[in-house]
Amino acid sequence: MRGIVVVRGGGDLATGTILRLHQCGFSVLALECARPTAIRRQVALCEAVYDDAVQVEGVTCRRIEAHQQAYEVWQAGEIPLLVDESGECLAQIRPLALVDAILAKRNLGTTRDMAPITIALGPGFTAGVDVDAVVETMRGHRLGRVLYSGAAQPNTGVPGNIGGYTRERVIHAPADGTLIPCTAIGDVVQAGQTLAMVGQVPVVATIDGVLRGLIREGFPVTRGLKIADIDPRLQERENCSTVSDKARAIAGGVLEALLHLAWQRGLTQELMGGE
What we know:
Blueprint: E1 4-8, H1 12-23, E2 27-32, H2 48-51, E3 53-56, E4 59-64, H3 70-75, E5 79-83, H4 90-93, E6 97-100, E7 117-121, E8 126-127, E9 133-135, E10 146-147, E11 150-151, E12 170-172, E13 177-181, E14 188-189, E15 194-198, E16 201-204, E17 209-214, E18 220-221, E19 226-231, H5 245-264, H6 268-271
Parallel strand pairs: 1-2, 1-6, 2-5, 4-5, 6-7, 7-9
Antiparallel strand pairs: 3-4, 8-11, 9-10, 12-19, 13-15, 13-18, 14-17, 15-16, 17-19
Helix pairs in contact: 1-5
């Protein structure tokens, strides 16, 4: 096995990075919180928290209960996922690299001393201070770019433009309550259609398009929480179960940063699993 890389987070963007590193032969351990709130659930490995094992693009991610079980899962060619929000297992795992892919738009506790190489995705981190490198996550010309000093572009609060829509394509909970879906990811929906119910309050589609993401059934949501995502491009329907272009671009940046820092610090042999 190649060097161990721990990735904090298992949402859809984190999943792109996890799969890229796994396919390149690295031993990747995903760390998640106890109740992740993924929207694009068909391409989010964090769903293993609930379902014990999930597959994305033919790769299996399996939940483990203790870090020692990771080695058995790696030997099976799978990706282990551990519920460990604070990273308590790091002292025992001693990874060569750590990637913060939580995408909380702020640092939730990642520090440079957690691993010889540390990388973070998006705003909330300063390269050279919080972590060794930051990968840009904002759509546009800089998406996937690696920064070895400074920070990613600040969060604008406006979703990226897809098919001419920004805020309109993202749907938030209209009330507190338990979500009961009326539609499924991949469905073609129309503006005004009821996508789900939160208690007795309908969740209504804002635009026509493909329901790209919907929070899992039975999840207790709070008013204002992002719970659904509509893609106005009908031709994207078949892509609901594959990693997005954005996630792949970010994953490329992570891989670049990982290899660059390993070469720069004389850690290439350890990273590639050499003796």
